[in-house]
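ok, trying the design again with the full structure, not the truncated one.
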């Protein structure tokens, strides 16, 4: 493998610019870490005055160093960083870790300084980690690299860590190393002015020594690149993520008048899901899942066998497993027969299989191999107490033997008495991850299952749609942009919808009551009148929507009322054919900075604010996404038809979702679009969007 990141993770010689003789400094610490962890190549301190640092001869400048240098740590005052980059370039250095802070993170001049550093590094063809970062580590024997100023433990393993911030990364690293899991590589790249997370993921993806990738982020600055790289890498290697902080964009995922609808970080969930990254909610879960996947592969399905010698903890494990979406099917008849012959008569042969506390290693051997062979299962969870009257080490050895080359992943919950520390040790040495609490083992297994499901999932396809007039739609959008953007007028919004085959009721605009009545006749009764006026957003709240107008006289009178009510606000009237009643749903889309659009579906009309029963996807929405959205809302049953009430044509709704998605893909300047409500009708009948809201704005990114 050759990559420009090799100079960071696999350098042959390292210099530390700013390696002070003063022990409580970052430069000193880096030097100390490099030496303590026995970096295999030369290490050069660079310091303007010191003759030696930590027993190593110091150099006044980089250029005085006799041999070649691949990697340089820069630990000098922020304003001195640019001149050190020049020195690196003169020395022929390839990679620079700028540990120094005082850049973008402090705002003001720091932002400008960072921009200058990034631009100059590009010109000089230097790759930069940071600024304001910790650095890198690599436990690969040939390198033994601890190029980082922290004091976290480090031991070789198969989990690689990449994080924006150093603190959480350190916690994860420490935990994994303390629990014997170890790490492969570690990267904390701070402000990421050059090397960003997607590139590091790609690098880890190519590294055969890495089995699991752990990612910690505080924001999603490279969402598109992240999705592109992670989708590929996650097919062969699990990527687990913790995202702290929430996005403003997520909360904006629906147009302003239904604002605050989205869960706070829906966007993160959508991005990670599309990227094939499994999101964990806590650092503990993240580490537990990493530990499990470091030695076990992800199950191919959700069917778990639980085997125990203690009833009650196994029930806790079963509850946790089922609560996390796993299934506990019965063992097959053949398995039960084997178990019946091998185990005590008092054993329970259901799932959990309870062998009783006196079960010996022979019982374990028989039961574990029978369950591993049973096609009813995708994984095995062993829940084990260590009775004083059983040779528990022999049990552990029997399980360990069977675990080697087992058909299914195995996790264990070992509730060892203090005299039996070896039980868990034997299992873990054989690659069977263990936890003290039953629920921890079950939830790690559930996360493993999520990983497997994501990796194996059919990504689906974006449907071909007919009857789309993209030039027509672009013309509407361009006209709006030419006047500075903003909300489209109702006629523009309806025209835009029509260009994408989104069915709307017949409509027209009137300025007087007489015009309204004439239009109504042309459209056909009954009609709906809607006031269009300056600053009128929530029309029905302000009494601006009147439905069920059956004739000329009613229309004339109501039109007069509405024009009077909104007098002084340039009132007009939208005359619409009254759509046959249906289930009110919302279909919408909203732009997210750096990412395109989220698309939303849910129960609409007033219910949207009350119930917030919605599901999201990222555009472009696939057929599968759309089907999932329609099924995912809590009110999905309403759409099937309930208690004599007709349901909705769900296929039609799915298509409508895909049309909205296509519209915002083709017209990304449509930053908000809401069809609320769409009146969904039973199978075979059109679903009409009776209210179309569209906001258009020029976007800096594509
Ligand atoms: P707003 O969102 O501004 O309050 P809408 O245009 O969404 O106003 O209309 C409010 C409600 O009136 C809708 O939820 C729907 O129940 C009903 N409605 C509006 N237009 C029609 C129509 N053309 N046919 C049938 N019902 C309609
Ligand atoms: Mg509405």
């Amino acid at each position: 493998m050759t990559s420009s990141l090799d100079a960071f993770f696999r350098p042959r010689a390292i210099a530390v610019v700013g390696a002070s003789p003063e022990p409580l400094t970052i430069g000193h610490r880096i030097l100390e870490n490099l030496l303590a962890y026995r970096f295999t190549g030369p290490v050069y301190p660079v310091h303007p005055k010191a003759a030696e640092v930590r027993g190593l001869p110091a150099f006044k400048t980089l250029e005085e160093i006799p041999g070649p240098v691949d990697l340089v740590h820069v630990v000098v005052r922020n304003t001195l960083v640019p001149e050190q980059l020049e020195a690196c370039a003169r020395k022929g250095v390839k990679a620079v870790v700028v540990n120094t802070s005082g850049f973008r993170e402090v705002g003001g001049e720091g932002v400008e300084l960072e921009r200058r550093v990034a631009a100059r590094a590009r010109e000089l063809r230097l790759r930069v980690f940071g600024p304001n970062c910790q650095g890198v580590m690599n436990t690969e024997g040939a390198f033994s690299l601890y190029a980082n100023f922290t004091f976290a433990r480090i031991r070789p393993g198969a989990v690689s860590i990449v994080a924006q911030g150093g603190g959480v990364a350190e916690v994860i690293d420490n935990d994994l190393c303390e629990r014997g899991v170890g790490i492969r590589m570690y990267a904390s790249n701070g402000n990421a002015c050059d090397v960003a997370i997607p590139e590091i993921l790609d690098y880890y993806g190519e590294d055969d020594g890495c089995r699991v990738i752990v990612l910690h982020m505080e924001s999603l600055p490279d969402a598109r690149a992240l999705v592109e790289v992670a989708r590929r890498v996650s097919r062969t290697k699990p990527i687990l993520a913790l995202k702290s902080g929430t996005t403003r964009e997520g909360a904006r995922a629906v147009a302003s008048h239904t604002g605050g609808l989205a869960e706070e970080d829906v966007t993160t969930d959508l991005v990670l899901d599309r990227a094939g990254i499994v999101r964990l909610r806590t650092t503990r879960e993240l580490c537990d899942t990493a530990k499990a996947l470091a030695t076990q592969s992800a199950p191919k399905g959700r069917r778990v066998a639980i085997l125990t010698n203690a009833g009650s903890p196994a029930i806790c494990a079963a509850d946790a497993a089922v609560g996390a979406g796993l299934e506990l099917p019965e063992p097959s008849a053949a398995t039960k027969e084997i178990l019946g012959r091998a185990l005590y008569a008092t054993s329970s042969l259901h799932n959990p299989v309870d062998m009783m506390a006196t079960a010996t290693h022979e019982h374990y051997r028989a039961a574990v191999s029978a369950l591993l062979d049973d096609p009813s299962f995708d994984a095995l969870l062993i829940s084990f107490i260590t009775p004083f009257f059983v040779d528990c080490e022999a049990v552990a050895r029997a399980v360990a033997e069977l675990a080697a080359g087992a058909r299914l992943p195995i996790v264990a919950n070992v509730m060892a008495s203090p005299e039996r520390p070896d039980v868990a040790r034997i299992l873990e040495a054989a690659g069977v991850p263990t936890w003290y609490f039953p629920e921890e083992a079950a939830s790690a297994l559930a996360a493993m299952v999520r990983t497997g499901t994501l990796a194996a999932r059919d990504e689906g396809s974006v449907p071909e749609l007919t009857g789309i007039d993209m030039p027509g739609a672009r013309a509407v959008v361009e006209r709006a942009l030419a006047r500075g953007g903003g909300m489209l007028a109702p006629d523009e919004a309806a025209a835009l919808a029509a260009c994408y085959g989104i069915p709307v009721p017949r409509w027209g605009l009137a300025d007087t009551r007489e015009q309204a009545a004439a239009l109504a006749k042309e459209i056909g009764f009954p009609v709906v009148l809607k006031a269009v006026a300056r600053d009128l957003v929530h029309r029905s709240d302000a009494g601006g929507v009147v439905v069920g107008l059956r004739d000329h006289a009613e229309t004339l009178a109501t039109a007069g009322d509405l024009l009077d009510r909104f007098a002084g606000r340039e009132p007009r009237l939208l005359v619409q054919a009254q759509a046959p009643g249906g289930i009110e749903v919302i279909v919408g889309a909203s732009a997210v900075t750096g990412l395109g659009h989220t698309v939303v579906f849910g129960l609409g009309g007033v219910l949207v604010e009350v119930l917030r029963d919605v599901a999201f996807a990222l555009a472009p929405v696939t057929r599968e996404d759309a089907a999932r959205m329609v099924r995912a809302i809590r009110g999905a049953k309403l759409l099937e038809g309930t208690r004599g009430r007709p349901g909705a044509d769900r296929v039609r709704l799915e298509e409508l979702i895909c049309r909205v998605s296509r519209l915002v893909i083709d017209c990304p300047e449509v930053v908000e679009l809401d069809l609320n409500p769409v009146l969904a009708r039973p199978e075979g009948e059109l679903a009409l969007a009776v209210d179309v809201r569209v906001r258009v704005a020029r976007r800096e990114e594509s």
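Keeping the full-length input from now on. DSSP finds 24 helices and 30 strands in the chain.
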